Amino acid sequence: MKTIYLAGGCFWGVQKYFDQFDGVVRTETGYANGPDRAPGYEEVCADSGHAETVRIDYDESRITLTRLLGAYFRIIDPLSVNRQGHDEGIQYRTGIYYTDMDQLAEIEPVWHEQERLAGAKLAVELGPLINFFPAEEYHQHYLDKNPGGYCHIPAALFTRNPD
User: Fold this and answer.
1) Neighbouring C-beta atoms of residue 148, cutoff 10 Å
2) pLDDT band of 92, cuts 50, 70, 90
3) Domain count for the chain
4) Which residues form the domain of 20?
């Protein structure tokens, strides 16, 4: 089992999107790479410095990090700074936060290919996870509980066969 943390704008849609992949064992929404204290949602919205992030635990024998990152780049604008869709602010920045240095060998080729495709330097943060604080329970699997909730990810990508 491996874990990767992905910030891709509003974490509601990012969680729903990755929950559908075979090999993703568990996801959890939370706040990452901000000050070293657990914030509440209101603090995050008031620019605490944390990014809305999804923890993804995956079985590497069933899904590769390369595949997860390819899927991640399908749902974000990698050149947008602190904004995805209609959501704007530092908490909506994009980022790939790893927990194991060995993951860099898989991340870097995807990163460089995405930069080549974009023709510009990516606005996606890439670095080790500094901290992660789980979001409040009402944010966990929010779009399953509230199917009409806003999401920057097109609904067509929420299928059991996302490829």
Assistant:
1) 6
2) very high
3) 1
4) 2-157
